[in-house]
Write a structure and sequence with these properties.
The chain has a domain of 222 residues. By secondary structure, the chain is mainly α.
Amino acid sequence: MAYNNQQNAYGAFGQGGYPNPPHGGYPQQQGFPQQGYPQQQGFPQQGYPQQGYPQQGFPGGGYPGQGPYPMPPTAGFRMPTDPEMNKPGEGFEGFEFSDRTIRMAFIRKVYSILMVQLLITFGFVALFVWHEPLKLWTRQNPGVFYGALGVTFVTMIAMACCEGVRKKFPGNFICLAVFTVAEGFVLGTAASTFKADAVLLAVGITTVIVLSLTAFSFQTKWDFTGMGAGLFVVTIVFMIFGFLAIFLRGTFPILNMVYACIGALLFSVYLVYDTQLMIGGKHKCSISPEEYIFAALNIYMDIINIFIYILSIIGNSSD
């Protein structure tokens, strides 16, 4: 009786609030059986019909049992793009924004490694040129020089030919450090045979040449990256000419001067070629950003060879 009065006060279930439930609980509402909601017409258990969606778009009349949907464009949905995000980087034509960022980070890494190598190498040169006891010791122990020369060749070939050696950290930096120290020892021993003034003049001329050619490589529209095959052929001929010069330099003293001038010119072109390979972008060929050890090694060897031939030119001219 109390329950009926309370039902009359609140009305039907779901209107105006609910009373405290009776001992038997609420009566089951009509239309919601225990087995769940009734299956709606047009949505069978096997899912939507296969034809027309998603390959050909939505069905023209809409899904069964529901109102029609507008037909989407046949080309599919495209996200709106910001034209500012796809502008190529200034001075690096052919690069998207992300590519330019990666390439700039790669260039900074290469030149950072290169500067450390050059500081170590020319530190050895200064030590061997101005420290007389060390200069005398190297002349009395030529085996140390040839041992360092062998280490230089082995580590250089390992980094140039073995991809795993130059890419796997920290082995690539260890191998590069060993190569740089050995090369510094070899170059310092060779420079100790020249006068200090000649070495200083060679360092100054090499610095001017390297900075000028580097600026030229970054700014010029000429593409030197397609000259790889031609430079390789010229290098082979230059090496053969060097072997002949060993036997003919007594007969033709000027041959050493000619050989040194050709070598300085050849490796100056190599410096431009390797710098543009590192820059990439608008050029035909480029080095992968993962090859920062290989790029630093190439440019380092170009600078060292330019210095050697400039020093040889100065030495031969003074003789």
